[in-house]
Amino acid sequence: MRSGVPSQHAAKPVVDQIINARWIIPVRPRALLHHHALAIQQGRIVAIGPRDEIHAAYTAAEITILDQHVLMPGFVNAHTHAAMTLMRGLADDLPLMTWLNEHIWPVEGRYVSPEFVSMGTELAIAEMLRGGTTTFNDMYFFPEAAAQSAQNMGMRAHIGHVIIDFPTAYAANADACLQAAADLLPRLQQMPLIRQSLAPHAPYTVADAGLRGTRELAEAEHLPVHMHVHETAHEVEEGLAQYGRRPLARLAELGLLNPRFLAVHMTQLDADDLTICRDSGLHIAHCPESNLKLGSGIAPVARIREQGIAVAIGTDGAASNNDLDMLGELRTAALLAKGFSGDPTAFPAWEVLEAATLGGAEAIGWGDLTGSLEPGKAADCIAISLDHPATFPVYDPVSQVAYCAGRDQVTHVWVNGQIRIRQGQAVDWEESALFSRAQAWVKRIRDKDQNT
Ligand SMILES: CSC[C@H]1O[C@@H](n2cnc3c(O)ncnc32)[C@H](O)[C@@H]1O
Ligand SMILES: [Zn+2]
After folding, report:
1. What is the pLDDT of residue 452?
2. Phi, psi at residue 39, to the nearest 5°?
3. pLDDT of residue 448
4. Cα–Cα distance measured from residue 246 to residue 230, given in angstroms and rounded to the nearest whole number
5. Do the Cβ atoms of 403 and 386 come closer than 8 Å?
6. What is the CATH number of the domain that holds 268?
7. Low-confidence ranges of the chain (pLDDT < 50)
8. Domain that residue 66 falls in
9. Which pTM was predicted?
10. Nearest Cα to 151, choosing from 441, 418, 436?
11. Which of 24, 189, 229, 387 is within CB 3.0–4.6 Å of 33 for a Cys-Cys bond?
């Protein structure tokens, strides 16, 4: 494949860098390229083509040679609560509402603050970048703190302004959340790696008034909406009892569903729900490991995809997953779709890689910039070394990435052309220093909250 490569007779342009790789999986187009290279200038991909042609066409200030590696777009984690790394392993083996009501919400009530969110988000970014994630779609309190952490650490983030009815350390009610979102929008617009959404928490925590306010602000500011929906059977039963209709139907009636709506979880879907999803054009963030661990249910991904409904992949927070590992998550998604449907062709390797990259970018309205390696797009890319016992032999690199590579094999990560991970190590921060700072929070939470 040859894309964006100038004629070799013209004067040779100088680019910032060229990355040579044994294999490139650009995701779009769906192709496996052998011995190709990527030319990058000012954070953007300017060309992708056979190695010799790229070197004949460009001079580069920096050349990286990845001769045992797959180069591919970074993963887009379509649903996170990044700061919840500080609560990883605090409450396990519980159903969702017990986990939230008796453990997570009380701890959040005591500790969540801008400082807590900065610390937890930094830990999450360190983990996600090491695992090859270059963009995350977040929903948490104090979104400015999360945005600032992502911008400082050079990671791309889609930051959700949370909307929730009950009083928290962040805001008194849904109206105050909407006001905080409106006030913050211009500040976050100044951050080049950040885009924003509105994030009403769930149908059971935001009444109709807050959802109408969400729709109005989303329409006025052209913002996407990111929300937990149909996570458990209990949520659907409770919604039916309280509102006389299933939560998804209620959201449709409130005018919230459209291609800029990202419904997270969606484990409970009847035929009418699937029709609503298909007709509205919404996207689904599938979080299989969090759903399994909380015993919430299994999203019927094969049936969802048969209807042409777009699926992205997310980890959810580190307190319910308990990791932020997109390679692990996409593998679980592929295997679960096959096992649950009884069809091994459900969610094949190529399609699950697409869902974990471009599918995530499109789900958050960022498909113009990231999620695939194409000229004009941001150089958000990762290298995975296949020179490892876990991935030997290599008949098909796509199969290796989907079914057997581990995140310890992610050697290089670039966001917007800036190297963030080199030879498996963070470039700009010491992980041990992050852990030392985080330890103060861990001590406070442990002393007060464990074994009480
Ligand atoms: C209001 S900020 C986000 C809010 O969501 C909570 N949360 C984390 N994981 C889940 C989940 O799987 N379902 C519902 N709510 C979840 C988190 O603790 C924050 O309070
Ligand atoms: Zn969640």
Report:
1. 47
2. -105, 135
3. 78
4. 9
5. no
6. 3.20.20.140
7. 452
8. 14-73+379-416
9. 0.97
10. 418
11. 24
How would DSSP label each residue in 250-317?
HHHHTT--STTEEEEE-----HHHHHHHHHHT-EEEE-HHHHHHTT-----HHHHHHTT-EEEE----
The ipTM, to two decimals, is 0.99
62 and 180 inside one domain: no
Q: Are strands 59-73 and 75-80 parallel, antiparallel or unpaired?
A: unpaired
* Dihedral of the alpha carbons of 344, 349, 354, 359, in degrees to the nearest 10: 30
Which of 99, 104, 289 to mutate for ligand 1's pocket (most ligand atoms within 8 Å of CB)? 104
In a domain, 423, yes or no: no
Q: Is 79 marked as a binding-site residue?
A: yes
Give the chain's mean pLDDT.
97
How remote is the CA of residue 324 from the centroid of ligand 2, in Å? 12
Q: Does the beta carbon of 201 sit less than 6 angstroms from any atom of ligand 1? A: yes
Cβ of 317 less than 6 Å from ligand 1: yes
pLDDT in tens, 124-178: 999 999 999 999 999 999 999 999 999 999 999 999 999 999 999 999 999 999 9
Cβ(36) – ligand 1 distance below 6 Å:
no
User: Is there a single domain that holds both residue 63 and residue 195?
Assistant: no
92 is in an annotated binding site: no
Residue 93, annotated as binding a ligand: no
Ligand 1: does its nearest atom lie under 6 Å from the Cβ of 296?
Answer: no
Cβ of residue 165 lying under 6 Å from some atom of ligand 1? no
| One domain, residues 194 and 323 | yes
Q: Is 267 in the pocket of ligand 1 (CB under 6 A)?
A: no
Q: Which helix (H) or strand (E) segment is 228 a member of?
A: strand 225-229
Point out the ligand 1 atom lying closest to the alpha carbon of residue 202.
14
Q: Decide if 317 is inside a domain.
A: yes
